[in-house]
Amino acid sequence: MAATAATAAASGQTVNVERPRTLVVGLPSAGARADRVDGARTGLSRTALPGSGLRTEWRVPLGALIEHAPLVDARGCVYVVGTRGEVISIARDGTERWRVPTGAAQAGPAALLADDSVVFVDAAGEAVAVRDGSIRWRVPFGRADAARPAPLPLEDGGVVVATTNELAALDADGQERARTTLPEPTSLPLLATLGRVVAITASGAVWSWAPGTREPSRVASFGSPVDAGAALADDHTLVAVTADQMHLTAVNLLRGTVTTRAVAPAGVWLGPPAMRGSTAYVALLTQAGELGVAVDGSGNEVARVVLALHPTPVTADGGPGGLNAAARTPPLVDSSGAFAFATAEGAIGVASARAVDWIGEACEQPLGSAARAAPPVVGLAPLEPGAFVAACHAGALLAIGGRSRAPQP
Q1: Is residue 235 situated within a structural domain?
Q2: Which helix (H) or strand (E) holds 373?
Q3: For 359-392, how does the pLDDT look when each residue is reduced to its tens digit (9 = 90+)?
Q4: Residues 6+ apart with CB under 8 A from 364
Q5: Does 309 reside within a domain?
Q6: CATH number assigned to the domain comprising residue 85
Q7: 3-state secondary structure of 370
Q8: Nearest CA to 128 among 143, 146, 111, 114?
Q9: Which letter does DSSP use for residue 211 in this model?
Q10: 30-46 burial, b if ≥16 CB within 10 A, otherwise e?
Q11: CB 279: neighbour CB atoms within 10 A?
Q12: What dihedral do alpha carbons 224, 41, 362, 294 form, nearest 10°?
């Protein structure tokens, strides 16, 4: 689709009338163009996940450490960004299309724009865009910062990028259109709804910003820090794990009200949830293992399945040990309720109400300090019906296929 219009929430795209050009706008629904699949951070696959007979279609060594989830375009091409800023594109058949060393330090999570430009923010406060095997632009927009919330691709072809306290709306050419400063720090992925950008700060406060206005507005609060990120159940309801991973909490962005949907039974929730409409799919860590639990919009548990079992932790004196709720891999869900997950040991699987199928030790366990930086599987993304892709922290990309289930109403 070609046009020169921008979204209603942002100022217009810069166009030189003496040099006509085509602007690609509109984000395809297929693939995964943002961290957690889309700008609502739902983790919802628009195509069916494999349900049984899981197999590794291909495995590609990347030669780079990976800390963030892969992106997938409408053709099934996969994009990953290494920790040293290298951007790598892999075709649907597992062959490498191109590789670009950007020289960026400590690249953050990326977003895929409407024209298939890969955009990320580095530790120097620069936004970098790569497309078709070359650097399109790099723009210093913020202060050097360790925290870089996942960028937000816009329908008009632009992107919102962020550091801890700064948000900037850039057009498809990297030109700044608007910026603002948050009164509190954030490190969680930005969200998009109702023509506005939503940011959740370290205290759990929810801020809303319309690019083009100077100041963000505080619309609600979760009441405590959010674990790993929130997801939209609909255009005005945010769902997240809060209260030291004990509560699954919903915030109404229009009314500012907060509701506890579920309390973790004998364990802790692992955020963020994946959303299938109003139903949240979330992992529950217990003393005996990990469970996948589905909680509907009324807070009722509608499904539960065992994802992994492990020995009960004990202390040096033989007493019960604490739960190791370190960073985990956010799950995917599809329209049938199939739930794709990765365990702390590096296994990858898909669960339904009927069965669990998984591939053991799909990704290597990181060693030393790397083990604290990221889980073995740093991200999952849908590919096409019956397949999804997984990125390993140690530097491998896997396509997982199998037989898919028919969608449920």
Answers
A1: no
A2: helix 370-373
A3: 999 999 876 555 556 899 999 999 999 999 999 9
A4: 346, 376, 392, 394, 396
A5: no
A6: 2.40.128.630
A7: helix
A8: 111
A9: B
A10: bbbbbbbbbbbbbbbbe
A11: 20
A12: 70
Spatial contact of 222 and 240, defined as CB atoms under 8 Å apart: yes
What does the block give as tokens for 152? 């937000």
For residue 173, give the H/E element and its range. Answer: none
Query: For residues 351 and 339, is the Cβ–Cβ distance under 8 A?
Result: yes
Residue 144 lies in a domain: yes
Question: Is 287:267 a contact under the CB 8 Å cutoff?
Answer: yes
For residue 328, the model assigns a pLDDT of: 87
d(CA 99, CA 84): 12
- Residue 373 has a pLDDT of 66
Bridging pattern class, strands 205-209 and 196-200: antiparallel
CA distance 133 to 135: 7
Length of the chain: 409
Q: Which of 110, 113, 116 is nearest to 67 (CA)?
A: 110
* Cβ 182 vs Cβ 207: under 8 Å: yes
Q: Which helix (H) or strand (E) holds 72?
A: strand 71-72
- pLDDT of res. 140: 95
Q: Which residues of the chain fall short of a pLDDT of 50?
A: 1-13, 15-21, 314, 408-409
pLDDT at 214: 84
Structure tokens at 202: 């370290």
Alpha helices in 51-210 (DSSP H): none
- Answer whether residue 142 is part of any domain: yes
Domain containing 124 equals 70-175
In Å, how far from its chain's centre is CA 333?
13
Amino acid at 145: D
For 86, the 3-state DSSP assignment is strand
Distance of alpha carbon 114 from alpha carbon 28, whole angstroms? 8
pTM of the complete model = 0.90
How high is the pLDDT of residue 7?
Answer: 40
Closest CA to 221 of 194, 244, 198: 198
Q: How many domains does the chain have?
A: 1
